[in-house]
Amino acid sequence: MSAHLTIDIEGMRCAGCANKVARTLSNLDGVSHADVNFALNRATIEPASADIRERSLEAIKQLGYKCKTTVISVHIEGMHCASCVTKVEQALNTLPDVVSASVNLATGKARIEALESNQELQHQIELIIESLGYHARPEMASQGNSAENHSVLSSSSWMLVGAALLCVPLLLPMTGVIQPLPGWAQFILALPIQLSLGYRFYRGSYHALKSHYANMDVLVALGTSAAFFYSVALMLTGHGGHHLYFESAAVLLTLISFGKWMEERAKRKTAFALDALLSLTPDVARRWQDGRWQEISLASLRLGDRILVKPGERVPVDGRILSGQSELDESLLTGESLPVSRQPGDNVIAGSINGSSTLEIDATATGSDTTLARIIQLVEEAQSGKAPVQQLVDRISSIFVPVVLGIAALTLLGWLVAGGSFSEALMAAVSVLVIACPCALGLATPTALLTGTGIAARHGILIRDLQVLESARHIDTVFFDKTGTLTVGKPMVSHWYQRQTAPEQLASIVLGVQQGSEHPLAKAYTDYAHNLGIQAAETDAITAIAGKGIKASYQQQPVLIGTATLMQEYGISIPDDDAQLLALQQTNGSLVHVAINNEWFAAYTLSDQPRETSASAVELLHQRNIASYMLTGDRQESAVTLAEELKLDGFHAGLLPAQKVKHIAEHQKQHPTLMVGDGINDAPALAQADLSIAMGSGTDVAKETASITLLHADPRLVPAALDICRRTRSKITQNLFWAFIFNSLGIPLAACGYLSPALAGGAMALSSLIVLGNALLLRRWRPGW
């Protein structure tokens, strides 16, 4: 019986849906049988292959259903170059249940999106990686092996020191300090280096060739072995007069190994942001249990647990303060440099540092559901992804090593045909093999991505979609939502006007009515009245009138609070000759009227104040020649006042969500656009724009739709996000330039005999270090204010 493919499907409503999916899958070319079980929401397809998997997933998607997938992270040891990455990805993508596989050379991690139905897939993935000659282990296991990694790096250091000491007597004759050593002495000095440092390259070459591909290990092993064994042959045949090349093989292995050692140290620094976030989670928490506080592991925490957090400790979960008042440092999570005050009823987030007082909190989110865990997941997803330009690198790396082997063979043959000696021809070919190693090519993109997305996360900018690196550099227009984006999103009473006497009595009546309502606009007035020390009057019969206001009774007199439309419906006349009331109508805010016993008494405005940093954000965009517009569903008067205050280039008011989409689509015909929003009603516009940013204070729908999420509500992070995206894209371009320039110039120079093997090895190592160093310069980036 042939192997079958199993796909779990979401969205099927009835047996008819299942039959439709089954018919569609059965009609696909190459599918011999397809069955869909509606009770299990599962499709079974024969035979199983990568091609049939891709076409089946696309067919199910086209029918409007969703395939359940899961993400598997695996740490891979032993990859050295872009060719290694390409081969591992190709092998993983051949597994029928793997939807997509992405391997990052800089982090040594593979991120595999796979169908949920295969419970054995983790084991299959590890087996296929091991078969290629690499070592695989689950990501959770790898996170706990920092001490082991440090030990490996330390042992490599001692091995390099020993190799360097053995190289000294091999190199001294070149300086004229001592006479050339006998061949047997050179052999004894070079052999330990060939066996120890060369082992990793021989092992990697064996597994690569066994899997029918060639990588950097093949180039290094072939080049150093040619120099070493040619020297052995000369020594054994008694050609003592010939120059031996033991020092070339030994120095070459030492330099290349030193370069790889430096790479490993530098690559650790590129993941600094993720390491910093992971370190925010404490190992244990104190939970109230069996009448006392007990220390337990974080995995044992549950929703509703009562947690104790002492001064100086990190908060283990998202929660709400039950008792205690303190200041919390949330800088690594929100970018806010100053501690924030928290008291009973306030929310706290996992990873923040408690200040001077003990807190008791109620756990509202634990484990992978905490804000910190979601941030870490977003950063990991971004760092394990690939920028669009990486597709070109992958195509090049897949054929790079075979092409280099061909160039080396032609170099050897060319020198011999031109009358050169075999020694000269061999050394030129070895130099070609060594300098062409695609290490820098494989590191160019991932190291820049790691550093760029990491430093962005440190400043509260979460890049979710790497396509933004391409889009950001073209953006010349930004559309802002108003409420909650450019404004605080919390209405406040800004003006109060009444023509009657006894203002405190009137205000207390309004307070009595409003405090009985749960509407946000009612809360705005109650906060205003409480700040003035006003006491609420006794009111009753409070009834909300949807979209218009509220009615109630005070001492058996009807009270109306709401819009002008509400007043008109009840036949209440609003003064039209009052200059102060007319002026109030022109202010930035919503006008609320108050009538008692069928007579107009007062009016007040509710306005949403602009954020303190909104004007600065618009100015920063203007400095970058980026136009700023506002799209809002609010009324024209409020919009024009805010637009003038912030010096926006324009605005559109009174818009429904679909109208926002229409404005963006129209503008996209001539200008690449960015949409910034925070609400559910902004999601369609966020999806329509070329690039989208969601405010961290916004809804989950907005944040899931957007390409970038801002951890805290500061509009200045919008130009900062564009800036770091552009700089990261620039670093990728620079790194690829350096990677290609070393190979483009180095290979011809080596083929013509202008580079010795040792110099070629040094240049190869230098190219990788330049790429890493250039990427690490992004760590110096700061938002431009």
TrEMBL record:
Compartments, as annotated in UniProt: Cell membrane; Endomembrane system
Sequence intervals crossing the membrane: 158-178, 184-202, 214-236, 242-259, 399-419, 425-450, 736-756, 762-778
Residue span(s) of domain HMA: 3-68, 70-137
Key word ATP-binding present: yes
Location, primary (coarse class): membrane
Pfam families with a match to the protein in the record: E1-E2_ATPase (PF00122), HMA (PF00403), Hydrolase (PF00702)
Keyword annotations of the record: ATP-binding, Cell membrane, Membrane, Metal-binding, Nucleotide-binding, Translocase, Transmembrane, Transmembrane helix
Family: Belongs to the cation transport ATPase (P-type) (TC 3.A.3) family. Type IB subfamily.
Protein name, UniProt field: HMA domain-containing protein
Organism (species): Pokkaliibacter plantistimulans
